[in-house]
From TrEMBL:
GO terms for cellular component: plasma membrane. InterPro entries: SecE_bac, SecE_sf, Translocase_SecE/Sec61-g. Its main location: membrane. Essential subunit of the Sec protein translocation channel SecYEG. Clamps together the 2 halves of SecY. May contact the channel plug during translocation. GO terms for molecular function: protein transmembrane transporter activity. Signal peptide: none annotated. The chain crosses the membrane at residues 32-61. This is Protein translocase subunit SecE. GO terms for biological process: intracellular protein transmembrane transport; protein secretion; protein targeting; protein transport by the Sec complex. HAMAP family: SecE (MF_00422). The lineage of its organism: Bacteria, Pseudomonadati, Pseudomonadota, Alphaproteobacteria, Sphingomonadales. It is found in: Cell membrane; Membrane. Keywords: Cell membrane, Membrane, Protein transport, Translocation, Transmembrane, Transmembrane helix, Transport.
Length: 64
């Protein structure tokens, strides 16, 4: 592998940075809302699963 000089490295970094396509404000807002809704759904789901398993464990411990 050929060695790259620091100057050439920074030129390559700048060239790659120019290729970056940033999301629009609308895309960012939509994605953030979607992530928030999914977090809420998953939190409620795992609360239900945890409560169910907790009730099962309490029931089994009462049998012992």
């Amino acid at each position: 592998m050929a060695k790259t000089s620091p100057g050439e490295f920074f030129n390559q970094v700048k060239a790659e940075a120019r290729k970056v396509v940033w999301p629009t404000r609308q895309e960012t807002t939509t994605t953030a809302i979607f992530v928030g809704i999914m977090m809420l759904i998953l939190a409620v789901f795992f609360l239900g699963i945890d409560s169910l398993f907790g009730a099962i464990v309490r029931f089994l411990l009462k049998l012992a």
